[in-house]
UniProtKB/TrEMBL annotation:
Belongs to the Gfo/Idh/MocA family. The keyword Oxidoreductase applies. This is Inositol 2-dehydrogenase. The gene is iolG. Gene3D superfamilies: Dihydrodipicolinate Reductase, domain 2 (3.30.360.10), NAD(P)-binding Rossmann-like Domain (3.40.50.720).
Length: 329
């Protein structure tokens, strides 16, 4: 059983703590957050210990692995400190807010020998993973076009948006990794950002965007994002190839459909948010992490994957700002 500490008792820390506590091969040992009440409350929910000083996590001999859910500027420092302490690492996205921070730490990152995995949980969603497996098996022939739709029910608080790094680093970065998961290397990015919500615009960010990615293979991915969706958390994927098309559709609480004099085939709304929609993905992500740590194998998502996703986010930001496509060398 892997003894795991969670750094960060915010929303994503709560997701990971709950996932660890319900996993038969994991134990939540410690929750760390500079806000004492937040750390103690989350730890107490699952019978774990809590602390405020992150150095206690790295020095604790009872901790085998660390899940990093701290603010993004601390991801690389916490990753490196955990690795130096011999702890395996599962780090949330993005790896940093700026590629300059990655470049400054490149030598240290390259020297890490402990298992390090990044939290691109979409890869582990059963539907998306099955679609990708079908592509790999040649079920639709050569993949030519990929469409990824990701719309949130509502925008996050403006205070969060101001420090998030922007929609491409915070939201689209999952879709960038999904596109690479299906298509491989991306050579060109063209993004159009939208200011549909003036409160978000005043915070300096786009609240919707459409991104086109061209892969080295010639395939093209289209990513559609929006911070608002009246019908719930809209998460869909379509992969089209020469010999067929794959669809991964939205998930609802039940499969019940209603037909009467007013509606035909009416269904329940989509699941409300990522906590519900990707619960299985977080569980399977944790299982993959535990398996890699215990078997001594390479985790399925790497530092290199995180770096490439950030590169795409920066390119999309540049493209949306200038109105021009950005070539990646």
């Amino acid at each position: 059983m892997l003894s795991i500490a969670v750094i960060g008792a915010g929303r994503i820390g709560q997701v990971h703590a709950r996932t660890i506590a319900s996993h038969p091969q994991a134990r939540l040992a410690l929750v760390c957050d500079p806000v004492q009440d937040a750390a103690a409350t989350l730890a107490g929910t699952y019978g774990a210990r809590s602390c405020q000083d992150v150095e206690e996590v790295f020095a604790d001999p009872q901790v085998d692995a660390v899940i990093i859910g701290s603010p993004t500027p601390l991801h690389i420092p916490h990753l490196l400190a955990a690795a130096k302490a011999g702890k395996a690492v599962l780090c949330e996205k993005p790896i940093a807010l700026d590629m300059k921070d990655v470049d400054a730490a490149r030598t240290e990152l390259d020297a890490v020998t402990v298992p390090v995995m990044f939290g691109f949980n979409r890869r582990f969603d059963p539907s998306f993973a099955a679609a990708r497996a079908a592509v790999q098996e040649g079920r639709i022939g050569a993949l030519e076009q990929l469409t990824i739709i990701s719309r949130d029910p509502a925008a996050p608080p403006v205070d969060y948006i101001k420090v998030s790094g922007g929609i491409f680093r915070d939201m689209t970065i999952h879709d960038f990794d999904t596109a690479r998961f299906f298509l491989g290397d991306i050579v060109e990015v063209h993004a159009v950002g939208q200011h549909l919500d003036q409160e978000v615009a005043q915070a300096g960010d786009f609240d919707a965007a459409v991104v086109t990615l061209r892969a080295a293979s010639g395939a093209v991915a289209t990513i559609i994002n929006n911070r608002h969706c009246a019908s719930g958390y809209d998460q869909r994927l379509e992969a089209s190839g020469r010999e067929g098309t794959l669809f991964a559709e939205n998930i609802r609480a039940t499969t019940v459909r209603l037909s009467n004099a007013e509606v035909t085939d009416a269904q329940e709304p989509y699941l409300d948010f990522f906590l519900e929609r990707y619960a299985d993905a977080y569980r399977l992500e944790l299982s993959a992490f535990i398996e890699a740590v215990e078997a001594g194998t390479t985790p399925p998502t790497s530092v290199a994957d995180a770096v490439e996703a950030l590169r795409l986010a920066e390119a999309a930001t540049e493209s949306a700002t200038t109105g021009q496509p950005v070539r990646l060398g």
